[in-house]
Amino acid sequence: MNQRVKFIPPITEKKRFFHVLRKRVDDYFLEGNINPHANATMVIKTIAMFAMYFGPYALIMTNAFSPWLMFILTAIMGVGLAGIGLSVMHDANHGAYSSNKYVNQIFGFALDLIGGCSTNWKVQHNVLHHTYTNIPGLDEDIRERVIIRLSPEAKRYKIHWFQHYYAVFFYGFMTLTWVAYKDIMQFIQYSKTDMIKNPVPEFIKLIASKILYYSYIAVLPLVFLDITWWQYLIGFVTMHYIAGMILAVIFQMAHVVEETAMPTPTDQGTIENLWAIHQLETTANFSNGNRILNWYAGGLNFQIEHHLFPKVCHVHYSALSKIVKKTAEEFGVPYYQKKDLKEAMESHLRLLKQLGRNEHAPAIHAH
User: Fold this and answer.
1) pLDDT in tens, 140-190
2) pTM here?
3) How many beta carbons lie within 10 A of that of residue 248, not counting itself?
4) Between 20 and 30 A from 248 (CA), which of 70, 85, 182, 257?
C-alpha cells in the first residue's frame, strides 16, 4: 500500500482557502465561548444510543418475550448498534468527543464492545480515508471488490453491469463481515505494513474484545434463552444487517455520488491540489435540513465539515456548515450538497450504473 502520496497545491489564490476558513471557525468558537467538544446534547445522545442497543438486549435476556418480540428487539438493537458507531465511537476515535484523551479512549472502545476493532478503525478511517479521500488504491472505502465496483480504477467484471440493482442489498452485510473475519485479516495486513504500532498487545486486545463480544452476544443467549439455534441466527443476522445497511448508506452517500471526484496521483506520487480543497471535491453533504437524521447520523450527513474538522464534535457541524459554505463560495471551491437522502441515493445508484457499464465513468473526474 503506497502511502507516499503528497498534496502539492498549485500557486493560486485558493491556497489561502483553508487558512481563512480555519481562522473563521476558530473565531466562531472563541467569540461564542463554545467548547468544540461534546456538550450536554452529545451526552444525552450517547446515553440514548447505548440504551437503544443494550436496553433491548437486557429485555431479550429476561426470556420473558415471544420469539417474535425478541426479533423486533434485535431489529432495534441494530439501529442502536449503528447509532453507537455513528454518534459515539466515531467522534471518540477522532479525539473529538473530549479534550481528555482518556475519555476518548473509553468511548472509542465502544467499537470493540459492539464487535468491531478500534485499532483497525483508526488506520482505515482516520489515516487512510481522511488523508487520501476517494483516491483509488489508498482509500479503502472505495477499494477493489469483486461484487461492487466503486471506482474507475477497480477491475470491472461482468456482474458489475447489474450492480446498481443489487449493491444496496450487499451493503447490509458490512458489519457481519467485520465481526466474522475482516477485523483479523485487516489487523494482519496493517501490522505487515507497520501501520499498527505495538502489534502484539494490540492483537491481544483484539482477541480479548472478540471473546467478550461473542460471550454476551452469542454464548449467553444460546445458553439461557428458550430459543433454537436458527431463531438466534435470524436475530443476530437481522441486527447486523440493519446496522450494516444504515452505516453503509450514510458513508456511501457522502463520497460515492456523481459530483465527487476520484483523482489519481501523478507518476511522481502527488496530488496537485490543496488537501482541504481535495476534501470538498471528494465529499458531499446530504439531508442537512432533516432534524432526525442530523441527530441520529452523528453529523455524518455534514460530511464536508467532518472531513475538514474531524477533531470537532459533530454537534457543531450544522453551525460550521454555514461558515464553510460561505468561504467555499468566496474562493470558488465546490460545496456539494444533496437536499435529501432520496436525491443522494439516486445519484449514488446512477454512479454505480456508470461504473458498472463503463471502464471510466464520465461523471468521475480528476482535479
Assistant:
1) 999 888 899 999 999 999 999 999 999 999 999 999 999 999 999 999 999
2) 0.92
3) 20
4) 70
